Amino acid sequence: MLKLDGLSVSFGTKRAVRDLSLEIAEGELVCLLGPSGCGKTTTLRAIAGLERPAAGRVGIAGRVLSVAARVVPPPERGIGFLFQDVALFPHLTVAQNIAYGMCRRQRATDTGRVEALLDRVRMRHLADSYPHMLSGGEQQRAALVRALAPRPRVVLLDEPFSSLDAALRAGLREETVRILKDAGVTVLMVTHDPEEALVSADRIVLMRDGEMVQTGTPDELYAAPVDAFTAAFFGAVNRVPGTVAGAEIRTRLGALANPGFGDGEPVEVLIRPDGLRLAPGGGRASAELHVCSVHFAGASSVVRLSERHGDPGHDHFHARLPGLVRHRAGETVRIAIDPGQSFVFSEPRSRSAR
Ligand code: ATP
Fold this sequence. Notes:
The chain is an alpha+beta fold. About 25% of the residues lie in helices and about 35% in strands. The two termini are about 35 Å apart.
């Protein structure tokens, strides 16, 4: 449904998007994820027809809409938009805002569309209200159904929930995904929030410095990151150098099976906090650490550990354990590494894991 073919976008000498190729199937919800400034919004704007590519092309449903020489204007693309700042027209009611994007012919033939959309977001009673009379969440829902009103084939969302507080955000995100899925539209959503991408997306495209780093399902990116950047993007990780010794990778925190590195190759091991197990008995692959502090955080507790007791200059490691834990600062514990939550990468330059 949506195809980017070697898309590059430049601002003067700055290459904001470099050689990005991506295909999104009909009805698929893809999240474009990455740190600030990596080119997410620029990619979306190029798809919308608001930026001209320096190279490559943008196509929707087999039709080429953007190449360097020719850009089909945004209103002729069959795309719906929902951007960070909602931008409902203040002088139009909710119903008028929703009807605004529909052409005259659609308004005449697609009768009941506005009411049906209002029903879908449980806002029929607010049809005659003006935007300033709505809460932030209601404004966002009105903007969403306004984007869907002309029955677009593709919807682009740019950080649509970032202006909402945390409590509202999760509920609205879930509702938005459900509405988009029910509508069967193809969706590309920009976010810098890994959790938002993990819970919302069929597929994630992770970007860095204008380039795609990895694409895959949320569990593929989380469980099989291609490099240290990807592994660390989904949450803080413990990092330790490793030594390749035959079938094992040895680290200060214990040993892991060698996934295929050659003896003597410099490697780095990344372990998620959930992958450090505090094991009283220990085992062959375990290390002894000191508990520096324990922080209870509701569903889990974070235990801060160090190799030497009371040495503030020394490396610290973090283990996340479910619920309340019985460990206390000052204790010595044995730890074990969960191989499913650990990743080995070449050090220092290679980006690939094995
Ligand atoms: P954020 O998450 O902070 O919104 P982003 O990943 O969406 O970031 P973009 O807005 O696409 O990043 O910007 C990519 C790069 O292009 C940045 O370095 C930015 O400064 C630059 N850039 C974006 N728009 C322009 C512009 N109109 N003129 C010059 N440089 C720009």
